[in-house]
Amino acid sequence: MNKLVVEIDEKDTASRYREEAANNHVPQSTRPCGESSSDEDDEDTIVAWEEGDPENPYNWSGRKKNSVLVMVMMLIINSTMGSALPSNALPFITSEWGVVSQQQMVLPISVYLIGE
């Protein structure tokens, strides 16, 4: 990306941040959330989207938002079920292979959770 464009975007973003902070009565010394202060870098890093930017989640269609929501829910359920289902099968697994040690009984779930 052209360095001039980046500098203009940074200056524009910084001026928008200062204007927003002034409108909301935020003291100028307050840093945005997630910012850390260092001696070498006193500049604020501001993440912003342009108006109508398709990468901004607020501009996503309802279908895309719902798709992301369903996918995240499926991943969470998959993770939970992946560790819970073998626990119900442990009595059958231990009787099939004659496992009597408590440490060996929890081994399948432990190995799965370590690998996850």
Essential attributes:
116 residues, mainly alpha
Domain count = 2
Query: Uncertain regions: pLDDT < 50 for 5+ in a row?
Result: none
Q: What does the overall shape look like? A: elongated
How many strands, which pairing sense, and closed or not: the largest β-sheet?
Answer: none
Q: Beta-strand level of the residues, as a percent range?
A: under 5%
Total strand segments: 0
**Average pLDDT across residues?**
77
Distance between the termini: 38 Å
Which secondary-structure class do the elements indicate? mainly alpha
Radius of gyration: 26 Å
| Helix percentage | 55-70%
Give, in order, the helices and strands: HHHH
How many helices in DSSP terms? 4
Your description of this structure?
There is one protein chain. The chain contains 4 helices and no strands. The protein has helices spanning 3-23, 62-97, 102-105, 107-115. The radius of gyration is 26 Å and the shape is elongated. The model has no long low-confidence stretch (mean pLDDT 77).
Could you write a compact summary of the structure shown?
The chain has 116 residues and is mainly alpha-helical.
List the helices and strands and how they pair.
Layout (H helix, E strand, L loop, with lengths): L2 H21 L38 H36 L4 H4 L1 H9 L1
Helix pairs in contact: 2-4
